[in-house]
Amino acid sequence: MNKKWTLLVSAVAFSAMLMTACGGKEQAANTNSTEAPAAATDGNGINIEASNWKFNQDVYEVKAGEEFTINFKSTEGFHGIGIEGLDVDIQKDGSKTLKVDKAGEYKIFCNVICGPEHGNMIAKLVVK
Ligand SMILES: [Cu+2]
């Protein structure tokens, strides 16, 4: 019950942020840079950051058959990621640990209708 309320309140707060942060205007550079960067790859993690309207890399690589963690963060605006064919669905910020046995290329896309260039928010997960 409580969790549902928290989710609802978060959703409303995020919507408000979305309207202010993703309204098409250029936002000032992120001044909140005191935060420590998310743990860099310890070999089994990838950090994906989304801003208006791109990801921080075009290609992310992981190893087939090994567990890895996706750390996702919206650094500007409100974005999310889904990965075609994989069970990944993160919005705003979050992590997901998974294992992909099948090598190949998987399309990463933004799963939040985030603004005019939403459709350009595409990257690739390469599983080797
Ligand atoms: Cu989007």
UniProtKB/TrEMBL annotation:
Ordered alphabetically, the record's keywords are: Signal
Q: Where is the EfeO-type cupredoxin-like domain?
A: 36-122
Range of residues in the leader sequence: 1-21
Q: What is this protein called?
A: EfeO-type cupredoxin-like domain-containing protein
- Look up and give the organism this protein is from: Brevibacillus parabrevis
